[in-house]
């Protein structure tokens, strides 16, 4: 593998199936464009006459749409922006923090990243969609699953405040896990 000499941008995108690294090479003399997702080449274009434009590809298990926009700023300077599902990365991540909860924990020396998609109540752990069992309990719902032989439960309880909505808590082996900030 030749050295990535034209590497101009690197982004980290947190999706339900994990955090993905997107790297972009742009040869401003040759017009070369190369997109890597998690180290794997997704797009390679040599000798592009037009130096500005966009490259669209997918990321992760759910094939999330991603677009790199290449814009000329001034002279020979370029700006590279990443859009996820048609939104700027910043807007996408802000919106994602409203629609998902993420917990990072270590069990028996193994690190786990658990993600709850609030709209579907799907639970993901280290890139795998988990088998879950949901049940109604006195004060809300519980979604049960297991990770590495440990029993896990996501409790959903109303905050009692309209603005806050529902509070989701991950409990592993009767221990509450603090939510991660991504």
Automatic annotation (TrEMBL):
Q: Which domain of life is it from?
A: Eukaryota
Functionally, this protein is described as follows: Plays a role as an inducible effector molecule that mediates Fas resistance produced by surface Ig engagement in B cells.
Location in the cell:
Cytoplasm
**Record's InterPro entries?**
FAIM1 (IPR010695), FAIM1_dom_sf (IPR038513)
Key word Cytoplasm present in the record? yes
Q: Which family does it belong to?
A: Belongs to the FAIM1 family.
User: Which GO terms of type biological process are on file?
Assistant: apoptotic process; negative regulation of extrinsic apoptotic signaling pathway via death domain receptors
Which UniProt keywords are listed? Apoptosis, Cytoplasm
Pfam families the UniProt entry points to: FAIM1
Per its record, how is this protein called by name? Fas apoptotic inhibitory molecule 1
Q: Per the record, GO CC terms?
A: cytoplasm
Species annotation: Pygoscelis adeliae
